[in-house]
Design goal:
This protein has nine helices and no strands. It is mainly α. Helix 7 packs antiparallel against helix 8.
Length: 177
């Protein structure tokens, strides 16, 4: 009579299924989806809004060469109509007349963001800040440019540090009673 054992009659399917299910449970959880990347236009909107939000008591407006002011106005018109290349040409001409103009440097930095040239935008914003008053709306735009570029590069720590600099641009007024 052949040997019959209940051990050999147990199908292996439930054990194999249990192994597969346990292995599936051991898989790492999928990464959380990254937030969508801001468009260049949205980044520039944030930069410009930072300057508008700054309610600093200090807002330096140096005397402006009328030719540079005309080039800046033309560049703003080109920017509004989406002609970023033409706007960049006008601002580059303004920078040839005065390469040390903080507001023109910042305007050109914002155009560089529109055009996706983040390295150039960062350098121009830093240069504008170095030459500028270190306070007020222009300062806020300078640092918000850095915030946006660092966020775009997934540099969270750098973006947080730059955000502190945006806040440092504000010089509150004296409380009068």
């Amino acid at each position: 009579m052949p040997f019959r054992s209940s051990v050999f009659r147990t199908p292996l399917l439930p054990a194999a299924l249990a192994t597969v299910l346990l292995a599936a449970c051991a898989q790492p959880a999928p990464e959380a989806p990254k937030p969508p990347v801001k468009s260049n236009a949205a980044m520039v909107a944030e930069i410009q809004a930072a300057g508008e939000r700054d309610k600093s008591v200090i807002n330096v407006h140096p005397l402006v060469d009328p030719a540079i002011a005309a080039l800046q106005a033309g560049a703003r018109d080109d920017e509004r109509s989406g002609q970023y290349g033409a706007a960049a040409v006008k601002l580059d001409m303004a920078l040839k007349r005065n390469p040390q103009s903080p507001d023109v440097l910042q305007d050109r930095a914002e155009l560089a963001v529109y055009m996706g040239n983040y390295n150039m935008a960062s350098k121009l914003a830093q240069q504008s800040w170095t030459l500028g008053s270190k306070q007020g709306p222009l300062c806020a735009r300078n640092w918000q440019t850095i915030v946006e570029i660092r966020e775009h590069a997934d540099d969270t720590a750098g973006a947080q540090q730059a955000s502190k600099s945006v806040r440092a641009c504000r010089e509150p007024g004296i409380q009068r009673y």
